[in-house]
Amino acid sequence: MTHRNAPLTELGRLRLARCVIDDGWPLRRAAERFQVSPTTAARWANRYRHHGAAAMSDLSSRPHHSPTKTPTRTERRIIKIRVQRRWGPARIAYLLGLHPSTVHRVLTRYKLARLAWLDRTTGTPIRRYEHDHPGDLVHVDIKKLGNIPDGGGARAVGQKLGRTNRTRTAGKTLDSRGHSHLGYSYLHNAIDDHSRLAYTEILPNERKETAAGFWQRAQKFFSTNGITVKRVLTDNGPCYRSRLWAQTMTAASITHKRTRPYRPQTNGKVERFNRTLVDEWAYARAYRSETERRAAFTEWLHTYNHHRAHTALGGRPPASRVPNLSGQHT
Hints:
Layout lengths: L9 H12 L5 H7 L4 H14 L20 H14 L3 H8 L3 H10 L28 E9 L7 H4 L1 H12 L13 E9 L5 E6 L4 H17 L6 E4 L8 H9 L3 E4 L9 H15 L7 H6 L1 H10 L24
């Protein structure tokens, strides 16, 4: 391709060369006429003399020889290790005694999929999907988090003081057997496949009664925002395999689907939401108590639904895909 600032196009080069070769113009006169240097005029004239009009196009800038090119045998070994072991450039480089950037260039040149795009079990590319309308499928899952002791945990005040705070706080809480413990929080999450609109509650356990009650409130949330849920996808947790959960789904005329065992990728959207929730809220800063962390959750969830840019939605928030969602502009 001719450079945009080049004084001669292919047709201009041909006219210059014909003036010199066919019409006998001196090089300097032809160069002045076409506003190029005599050296440039001589180059195109010589190409025309030896190869004709076909030589007026640009030649490839690819070198004829590449002494430092990675040998074909080495490239084949890189590809074989990537396909069989699904290693990244650094690990392959250490094994073969190469630089990671060299391995990366080979993988890129042969257009091998990134590891993040592959199923780690089978090595096949992950088939990503998105349902066409809100409510066509809602992903449901539970995320377990350890409670923060009063005064702060190890992240906030260090290991020694954090351990002391944990022991002191645990002594205030007794379970049904009279044992003191700090305990866990269970975040029950529901996220719409099309819009990524999320509904979450922080609950004390993951029993079937708790899960069924959560879904009834989640369905009311989606219904209030104009979303009619048709299908629900969960993992194979005991609460989702219970008769109570099945009855709850049937009563709401919802089709319940479960993921294949040991395949959390199938429920990937809610799994990714769990990671976002942990990174941007649960461990985003050093909270001094569980109460303080929970107090920040409502605002974070509102920001996620109404204001936070979502990469899968082209930088728009989930609310942008739900018409007339309340609170969208607050």
